[in-house]
Structure prediction request, 195 residues.
Amino acid sequence: MKRHRGFFLSWAILLIGIISGGTYWMANQGSEGKSALPLLEETYRSAVEAMGKPHELVLARSYLCGVKEEERIVLGKESFEQILSDYKGWEIIASEEGKLILLKRENDIAPSCKENGYFGLSPDGVLTLFNGVPGEQNVIQSFYQINRAKMEAALPKEEIALLQKGIRVRDLSEYNSVLSTFSEFQTEESMVEAH
Prediction:
């Protein structure tokens, strides 16, 4: 019986998500400047109330460098309104039986990327962000294929050697600077794939 209830509840939540997505889209079509967020929150509030009070809150963070982190919090007596108030700016992405999942898209690189992030080239010549020096091959995020001949003709040997050893990034501006510097050397195939 519990399995059937869980199955029905999962489908009901999925249906509510689809309806709320359509409602959000329709509400934003003709209402310039008006937010459809209250409609979306109301739909999720109904879903949460129907499934019962969540016992666990999952806070998912997504960073520009491709890292995703999750934090799990056991909820006490917080109301749905209190949770929304405490986590303004977070998106509700799912509500499952006893669990509410919120997402925040950070406009920064992750702390782990700041601590140990290095840009370099993968063995097949793709500009890549590594956790540690490129030789360790702990890939965090891959970007685009580099035209080595074009890069070697345009850049000093020291810069190319630095990229092969690994260019350390400690913050968002360094991350963006490296991407900007080497974007002019991406192959035409990778430019087509990106669009």
In short: Strands lie at 56-62, 68-74, 91-96, 99-105, 117-121, 126-131, 139-145, 167-169. The chain has eight helices and eight strands. The mean pLDDT is 78. The helical segments are 2-29, 37-51, 80-86, 111-116, 148-154, 157-165, 172-183, 188-194.
